[in-house]
Design goal:
229 residues; 26% helix; two-stranded antiparallel sheet
Length: 229
């Protein structure tokens, strides 16, 4: 049911190179964990204009974009196989975002990542796809989330309308979810990062669990933690 693009992978060497930009002890110069950038306090050394700190919302670098994607061991309702996570660089991010998020204008998108999880022993449609998109500001991320929500509310042609459903995201700043047939899609924002969890043949409860796993990992990585520690 996903309409995204694949094959926009960054070579492992590139990811490793970007990951190596932090300090050798896993922290950056601002004291945040590797993977999260713009953590509170990062602007202190950069100086303030007129006594006001130039704070930036925490976001994800290439390492964080991989680290924040769920792993199969976090799901206890079956055995899952995982596809290789992919990182999308800024040059391809706008197209990647628009192709996955209903063709909306993803103004401000900086990078993204994507990963599939499939339930072993079931049909190929019984899977979840997790995508993340980083933006320069929270306002840009919110604007894209609202634009996608409006698209989902619009008439959908011969396939019929999407139905808004109640899904507990597990702590996202903003979220909404829709359902049609065997598809459930959950759209969420944490700070300046958007998350889209697309599920097929999962059912609403399992889709909700997938969304909660994603938000739990995302918030932990944005806060400087390591979900796999």
């Amino acid at each position: 049911m996903r309409t995204g693009v694949r094959g926009i992978a960054v070579a492992a060497a590139m990811v490793a190179a970007l990951a190596g930009c932090g300090g050798g002890d896993g922290t950056d110069a601002a004291g945040g964990a590797a993977g999260a950038t713009g953590a509170p306090g990062a602007a202190d050394a950069a100086g303030a204009t007129g006594g006001k700190e130039q704070w930036q919302p925490p976001t994800l670098d290439a390492t964080g974009l991989i680290k924040a994607l769920p792993v199969s061991s976090e799901f206890s309702d079956g055995t899952y196989s995982a596809g290789d996570p992919e990182v999308v660089p800024e040059a391809a991010a706008a197209k990647f975002c628009a192709d996955n998020l209903e063709g909306v204008d993803c103004a401000g998108v900086k990078s993204g990542s994507i990963k599939d999880l499939a339930l072993v022993g079931n049909s190929s449609d019984d899977q979840a796809t997790f995508t993340l998109y980083t933006f320069g500001t929270e306002a840009e991320a919110t604007a894209v989330l609202k634009a996608v929500e409006q698209k989902r509310k619009a008439p959908q042609g011969e396939d019929g309308p999407f139905t808004p459903v109640k899904v507990e995201s597990g702590g996202a700043d903003e979220s909404f979810a829709v359902e049609r047939g065997d598809y459930v899609g959950v759209y969420m924002r944490v700070g300046s990062v958007l998350s889209y969890v697309s599920t097929g043949d999962f059912g609403r409860e399992r889709a909700e669990r997938a969304a909660q796993v994603q938000i739990g990992r995302l918030k932990l990585v944005l806060g400087g933690g390591d979900p796999d520690a």
